[in-house]
């Protein structure tokens, strides 16, 4: 028999024929949640390009896509059987034919189960309204009363969707009747989740978040969740609906969301790749950061199905996890296994997103970084300046120098020479600043960056220079002064220098961990015979020294009262966990640069990494460890 899906397709066909606006973009069609029950497919025969009569296609959530042509495709709908008690097949077939003009049958548009709502032009609105106000739709509404409850809900949602699609006013008597019938139907709790979500999506499109119908739909979904566990596809639909109409102030909706989180955690192991991506995107839209356990489980599931992700889904998943602030080590392992093989043919945006994710999670991955560097050498011309910046910045800040570094920096220099003006000023500074972490000093561009023209351009972006940009410029200046003695170009004006790097959001140095200092304090005091040291000392260049020890000309440790007679200085770097990459024992780029600069400034740098000191079990072992670190350095002073 002809189903309500087939008949509602005929409604759309007739409306589109009446308004002469049926240009449908397939990409937009598939992305829309509207018309999910319309399973009739039209077999394409001919496509004739005509002048468009509509200015755009309106998707379900209000986005517009301009159309370039109107397509007419000869077709006939394929029915999907649905049992309708008491009604004959001929009767419904006749109803479908009455609703579909003969001309529309000969030139029907290509329709999809996910057709977006399109709004007709004003000069055809009268014809559409007359069609919806006629007896055809009224008769169809009457016939719907004999359908099974879920089919009836799907049919009402589809008809309301057609009203929205063709711009029928919400105060239209037909729309009001359909809404009332939906509200009456929602009083019955036997409707399935898929149909409830369809009704909720259409109600949101008609009346917004404050719709009484939306409230009833969410209450019905809440009742279903209390009694049963939803399937993975149903969970995705509910998250998508809540992403549209969730109101944090509503206690009912907050409770519904919490219940949905619990159910979803139980079925995470059954989710497919696309469902993982869709749920993470919905959580991102909901801005719900309290579901930490769920996000971690989704991240773990993403590692298991990573191979099945499309490139676009990988971008969405990683972007969502970065914003939600969660990380799973197994996901990195899956990325190391599958990402390198994708880089040759993938969108450069995928590469920059992967590198950005590694940077945020402080994961220094050799397989990924090597593959990215090789791809950069071969295909850097295809990348935008922002994508290039993200790749170089990640390698610099994570202190990773690839094996093909010579070729990579030659390629980078070539790109900077040919596309220098295309880089945004702040993005360019970040690239050059990342290079100094790897001890690659872009002297050819220092003169351009320190020029008055570039500094004015940097300040002309609508905002005053932020501290991070000034800190990067200051550190570039220090590199030219301390490490590039043969540079004679322009310098950064002194009034633009930052006075202290520690005050710039930990972008240039990580504060000393108080717990590690407490562990070191007692054995260090015993070793030196007293507190012959000072902590958190600011240098004239702006760096902070964790523990400073001063020596006289003979190499003896000076008490604090005699520091005026200092001949040499020793800087103890108490390196806590936050100063290293999260998955290796490599210092971050900013910490490696800081130590190089301290040495150039005359300090003898002694590193006390947490992973070495934590292995010491007794106080005696700690004293001996510090002795082996400090006194060989003093001995070197005496013989230098």
Please specify the SSE layout and strand pairing.
Elements: H1 4-19, H2 26-31, E1 48-50, E2 57-58, E3 64-65, E4 70-72, H3 89-99, H4 102-106, H5 122-132, H6 135-144, H7 149-165, H8 173-186, H9 193-207, H10 212-227, H11 232-245, H12 251-267, H13 273-286, H14 292-304, H15 311-324, H16 329-342, H17 348-360, H18 366-379, H19 385-397, H20 405-419, H21 425-437, H22 443-449, H23 452-459, H24 467-482, H25 514-528, E5 534-538, E6 544-551, E7 568-575, H26 589-600, E8 603-609, H27 610-613, H28 619-638
Parallel strand pairs: 7-8
Antiparallel strand pairs: 1-4, 2-3, 5-6, 6-7
What does this structure look like?
By secondary structure, this protein is mostly helical. Among the domains are: 1-185, no CATH class; 514-638. The chain contains 28 helices and eight strands. It has helices spanning 4-19, 26-31, 89-99, 102-106, 122-132, 135-144, 149-165, 173-186, 193-207, 212-227, 232-245, 251-267, 273-286, 292-304, 311-324, 329-342, 348-360, 366-379, 385-397, 405-419, 425-437, 443-449, 452-459, 467-482, 514-528, 589-600, 610-613, 619-638, and strands spanning 48-50, 57-58, 64-65, 70-72, 534-538, 544-551, 568-575, 603-609. The strands form three sheets. The chain has a four-stranded mixed β-sheet. Strand 5 (534-538) and strand 6 (544-551) form a beta hairpin. Residues 14-127 have low confidence and may be disordered.
């Amino acid at each position: 028999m002809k189903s309500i899906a087939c008949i509602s397709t005929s409604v759309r066909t007739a409306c589109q024929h009446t308004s002469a606006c049926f240009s449908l973009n397939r990409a937009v069609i598939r992305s829309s949640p509207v018309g999910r029950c319309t399973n009739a497919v039209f077999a394409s025969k001919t496509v004739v390009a005509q002048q468009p009569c509509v200015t755009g296609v309106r998707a379900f959530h209000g986005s517009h896509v301009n159309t370039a042509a109107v397509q007419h495709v000869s077709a006939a709908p394929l029915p999907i059987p649905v049992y309708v008690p008491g009604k004959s097949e001929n009767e419904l077939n006749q109803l479908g034919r009455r609703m579909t003009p003969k001309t529309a049958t000969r030139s029907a548009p290509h329709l999809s189960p996910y057709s977006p709502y399109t709004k007709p032009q004003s000069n055809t609105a009268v014809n559409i309204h007359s069609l919806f106000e006629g007896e055809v739709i009224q008769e169809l509404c009457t016939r719907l009363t004999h359908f099974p409850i879920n089919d009836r809900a799907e049919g009402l949602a589809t008809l309301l969707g057609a009203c929205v699609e063709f711009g029928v006013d919400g105060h239209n008597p037909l729309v009001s009747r359909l809404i009332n019938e939906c509200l009456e139907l929602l009083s019955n709790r036997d409707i399935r989740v898929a149909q409830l979500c369809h009704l909720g999506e259409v109600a949101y499109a008609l009346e917004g978040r404050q719709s009484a119908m939306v409230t009833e739909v969410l209450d019905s979904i809440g009742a279903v969740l209390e009694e049963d566990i939803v399937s993975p596809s149903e969970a995705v639909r509910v998250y998508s609906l809540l992403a549209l109409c969730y109101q944090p102030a509503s206690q009912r909706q907050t409770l519904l969301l919490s219940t949905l989180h619990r159910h979803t955690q139980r079925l995470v192991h059954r989710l497919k790749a696309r469902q993982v991506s869709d749920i993470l995107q919905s959580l991102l839209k909901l801005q719900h950061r309290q579901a930490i356990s769920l996000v971690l489980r989704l991240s773990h599931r993403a590692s298991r199905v990573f191979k099945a992700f499309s490139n676009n889904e990988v971008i969405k998943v990683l972007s969502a996890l970065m914003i939600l602030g969660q990380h799973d080590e197994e996901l990195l392992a899956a990325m190391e296994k599958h990402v390198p093989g994708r880089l040759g043919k993938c969108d450069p945006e995928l590469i920059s997103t992967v590198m950005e994710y590694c940077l945020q999670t402080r994961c220094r991955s050799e397989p990924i970084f090597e593959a990215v560097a090789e791809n950069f050498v071969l295909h850097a011309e295809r990348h935008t300046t922002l994508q290039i910046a993200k790749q170089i910045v990640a390698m610099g800040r994570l202190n990773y120098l690839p094996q093909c570094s010579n070729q990579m920096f030659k390629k980078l220099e070539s790109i900077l020479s040919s596309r220098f003006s295309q880089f945004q000023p702040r993005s360019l500074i970040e690239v050059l600043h990342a290079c100094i972490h790897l001890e690659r000093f872009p002297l050819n561009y220092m003169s351009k960056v320190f020029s008055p023209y570039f500094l004015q351009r940097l300040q002309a972006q609508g905002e005053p220079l932020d501290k991070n940009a000034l800190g990067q410029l200051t550190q570039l200046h220090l590199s030219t002064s301390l490490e590039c003695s043969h540079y004679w170009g322009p310098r950064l004006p002194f009034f633009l220098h930052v006075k202290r790097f520690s005050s710039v959001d930990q972008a240039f140095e990580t504060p000393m961990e108080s717990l590690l200092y407490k562990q070191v304090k007692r054995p260090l005091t015993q070793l030196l015979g007293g507190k012959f040291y000072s902590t958190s000392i600011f240098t004239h260049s702006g760096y902070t020294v964790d523990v400073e020890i001063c020596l006289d000309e003979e190499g003896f440790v000076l008490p604090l009262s005699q520091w005026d007679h200092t001949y040499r200085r020793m800087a103890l770097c108490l390196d806590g966990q936050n100063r290293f990459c999260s998955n290796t024992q490599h210092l971050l780029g900013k910490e490696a640069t800081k130590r190089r600069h301290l040495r150039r400034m005359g300090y003898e740098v002694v590193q006390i990494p947490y992973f070495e000191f934590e292995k010491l079990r007794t106080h005696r072992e700690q004293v001996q460890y510090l002795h082996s670190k400090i006194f060989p350095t003093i001995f070197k002073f005496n013989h230098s």
